[in-house]
Structures are given as C-alpha cells and as structure tokens.
Design goal:
The chain has a five-stranded parallel β-sheet, with helices on both faces. The chain has a single domain, classed as Response regulator (Rossmann fold, 3-Layer(aba) Sandwich). β1, α1 and β2 form a beta-alpha-beta unit. The C terminus is likely disordered. The protein is globular. It has six helices and five strands. The chain is α/β, with parallel strands linked by helices. The chain is about 40% helix and about 15% strand.
Length: about 150
C-alpha cells in the first residue's frame, strides 16, 4: 500500500510563461499548491510569502539569474531546512553548468524542455515525508549577502 502523500507548496520561477503554466497544471493535478513568478526579482519576495517546500528556478531569467537566486536562498536558509531547489535551463546544459548549480545549492538540474514526469518524480519523495516546520527565511542575512 502506498503511503499517503502530502500536498507541497511549489514555486515555479521562469520567464517563459508557457513553461510555468504547463508545469503548474501538472503539479496541481498531483495535488500540489503552485505559485508562479516570471521575473527573477519576484522570487525572494514570493519565498517569504509562501514558504515553499520546493522551488524550480530557470537559470536565465530577467531581473536575477537562477544562479544568483540559489546563492541568496542558500544564505536565507542557512542552518535551517531549505526548500528543495531545482534548476532548469535550455541554454546552460553542460556538465560545468550542472557542477556550478550544485555548488550554489541546487539539489537537481533539469534540461529544458523538461520532462514533466521527471519533476513529479523529484517531488514525490518530498511529498512522502511528514510536513516540516517551515522556518521563516532569514531576511537580514539575505539582504546583507545580496549586497556583497
């Protein structure tokens, strides 16, 4: 018997609206609550509002890159349980790009066009875990690290 899964809060950040819409429909069909942003500058504010369990970041977005956001999010959650971070890119797909993403805090790296089932498969183990306490990201840490 399959254990019951919990609904996850997922943030999708990609400047390609069709990508976020398509993935949102799929993830909502899986029972998850999905929030979408299409500009890198909106990610951190949205993270503070919704405290997601998982964040899917496009590497090349206007406003702030997925790489820069990963560094900022890592600083925000330093010492606490951070959301699952998934990078997506259609342009930056070399091994060196994946290595850089891992160093910056990404847990997974998907090549565009991403297979939607691959994303579902990445989230399934997380949704099978008990619901964690969602710590508030450290805003002061994020602001100090964003400036330098």
């Amino acid at each position: 018997m399959t254990p019951p899964r919990r609904s996850l809060r997922v943030l999708l950040a990609d400047d390609e609206r069709d990508t976020t819409r398509t993935l949102a429909v799929l993830l909502e069909d899986e029972g998850h609550v999905v929030h979408q942003v299409n500009h890198g500058a909106d990610v951190v504010r949205t993270v503070h509002m919704v405290r997601p369990d998982a964040i899917v970041l496009d590497i090349q977005m206007p406003g702030k890159s997925g790489y820069a956001l990963a560094e900022e999010l890592k600083a925000m959650y330093y010492g606490t349980r951070a959301p699952l971070l998934v990078a997506m890119s259609g342009k930056w797909t070399q091994d060196s790009d994946r290595i850089l993403a891992a160093r910056l805090g990404f847990d997974h790296y998907l090549k565009k066009p991403a297979n939607p089932q691959e994303l579902v498969d990445l989230l399934n183990p997380l949704s099978a875990q008990p619901s964690p306490q969602h710590p508030q990201p450290d805003a002061a840490s994020a602001q100090s690290n964003a400036g330098g």
